[in-house]
Amino acid sequence: MSEKKRLDLEYSQLDSDRMRLNVGPQHPSTHGVLRLEVEIDGEIVTEVIPHLGYLHRSFEKHCEKMTYPQIIPYIDRMDYISAMNNEWPYVMALEKMLDIKVPEKVEYIRVIVAELNRIANHQIAVATFGLDAGAFTPFLFFFRDREYIIWILEKLSGARLLYNYFRVGGLAGDTYPSFKEECLNVIEKVRKTNAEVMDLLIYNRIFIQRTANVGILTPEVAVNYACSGPVLRGSGLRYDLRKDEPYSIYDRFDFEVPVGKGEVGFVGDCWDRNIVRMQEMEQSCRIIEQALAQMPETGDVKANVPKRIKPPKGEVYMRTENPKGDLGFYIVSNGTDKPERLKARGTSFVNLSVIPEISKGYMFADLILILGSIDIVLGEVDR
Amino acid sequence: MGLLNKLDDPYDGGGIILGKVEELLNWGRSKSDWYLHFGLACCAIEFMAMNASHFDFMRFGTIPRTSPRQADFIMVTGTVTFKMADRIKVLYEQMAEPKYVISVGSCSNCGGPYWEHGYHVLKGVDKIIPVDVYIPGCPPRPEAFEEGMMKLQEKISHQAIFNKRKRLGIE
Fold it and tell me: How far apart are CA B147 and CA B72, in angstroms?
């Protein structure tokens, strides 16, 4: 195993008192309101217990009380960094239930906004990870570029963060005239900044020394804990729902699925998870370019949908590739305009569960980096 | 900047400012507020954008602090749940006087979208700590953050420090 592991064995032979520490819920590095109960032996972490529920906003209760279109804003507030991606599996599940075929143009706009939001999400993820490692400049660079993405999404939907843009069978509105040019401009900016950050942060010697060989997640553990998204792909497994189970129109695009290769350390360390996010941004740019070229100029943005959405009795499960991993919605319908039960498979919740496993034996300061590299959003963990 | 405007109209020889000590103190206090950032939910992401390149929150003289002992005001950004409520109260009580509270977003103002069925959501942070400025929005735009900060500065710069009881008529 790695050097860090050997260090752990040597330390554990010393007889010392163990100490219990609370990290959070009000702590700048916990990415929200997570509380970690950490048992440390000197500087070495021996046990981590995450405590949840500080942002439990009764999502499933609300779903039982609201009609189907009214639920969409609450889904935005689950994973609030990538709201567009969250709405997608939900509206797709309902479209599957109601047997609606959405127009061609809608599919393309959905792909474009979802990929734009994926870039924005990964920008925040890498930026805050840099902050955890002590690099402040990439944070400013990424937030400068993220603002341009947000302006596009704002012009489409009217909101900066929680969009409520997807509708069952269509979208809230059509694109605006300069949409194509602005998307292409943003892609150019994103690529330029990414190239800069690659030099500045990712291949920085200090950053590599902080993150390489830290928090190694082996493929077996990742699969056993049902991890998904960049966390799983960082461990070298090529699993992406956009490729493996192409939903919507993703089979029409040519893109790659980046995986961690262990370039500077072992496969599945914090650095690998981070480089996967950087490379995914580039792939998202490629998808947006192809989608913009293929998008039909004219067309309707709403299918024929009954005014009151009443899916027939039954159940449906639909999942898509969120920026953080698989996001699935399980809807049980009882024939009325409100769901009987709605269960969300929160990606962050599943990915968070791997932290106690992979942070044992590392330094306490590394725990913060491991948490940052998992990229959790507490709104999705607690719901 | 009421104090500095008086420099434009100096007395003979110049360099003299006539004013109240209170005004000087309040001017200083209102222009360098350090805040305890209490990021809870979606509003915290918008607040991160507020802190970053485009909007630059620090031009108000605010510096983020992670310890309540060093903070002048607390920014409650996001949904306050019952589990979190007593933590907020403890942190507020740890802050040194004078202290202020900005409540950001619909959730911490009144419960927001969760006011009706949110069985685990506190319907407004003002139920546990006194709030000075409410910033509306779900989440608020950065411009709204700016206005909220300016409102707090306005409030601080008009505060009575000396002879408080007499002037405010408290008996």
Answer: 18
- Cα separation, B146 vs A69, in Å, equals 33
Average pLDDT of the residues in A224-250: 88
| Residue B2 structure tokens | 């009421």
DSSP letter (8 states) at residue B47:
H
- The answer to whether A78 contacts chain B (CB < 8 Å) is no
Contact B41, B77 (CB under 8 A): yes
Residue A296, pLDDT score: 86
Average pLDDT over residues A268-292: 90
Whole-number Å distance between alpha carbons of A34 and A382: 9
Task: Report pLDDT for A11.
Answer: 56
pLDDT for res A119:
92
- A73 touching chain B per CB within 8 A: yes
Q: Which of A56, A144, A379 sits opposite B42 (nearest CB)?
A: A379
Chain B: closest CA distance from residue A179 (Å): 22
Instruction: Give the separation between CA B136 and CA B74, rounded to whole angstroms.
Output: 16
Q: Calculate what percentage of chain A has a pLDDT beyond 70.
A: 95
- Tens-digit pLDDT profile for residues A292-316: 998 888 888 888 888 888 888 989 9
pLDDT bracket for residue A1 (50, 70, 90): very low
Residue A314 near residue A97 (C-beta atoms within 8 A): yes
pLDDT in tens, B125-144: 888 999 999 999 888 988 89
- What local confidence, expressed as pLDDT, does residue B1 receive? 52
Is A163's Cβ below 8 Å from some Cβ in B?
no
Decide if A139 contacts A127 (C-beta within 8 A): yes
Tell me the chain A residues in contact with residue B52 when contact means C-beta distances shorter than 8 Å: 139-140, 143-144
Rounded mean pLDDT, A218-227: 90
Distance CA A271, CA A207 (A): 9
Best B35, B69, B79 member to test A by mutation, with max A CBs in 10 Å, is: B79
| Cα dihedral value A74, A245, A271, A360, nearest 10 | 70
Q: How much is the mean pLDDT over chain A?
A: 86
Burial class (CB in 10 A: 0-12, 13-18, 19+), A180: middle
- Inter-chain residue contact A26 with B91, CB threshold 8 Å: yes
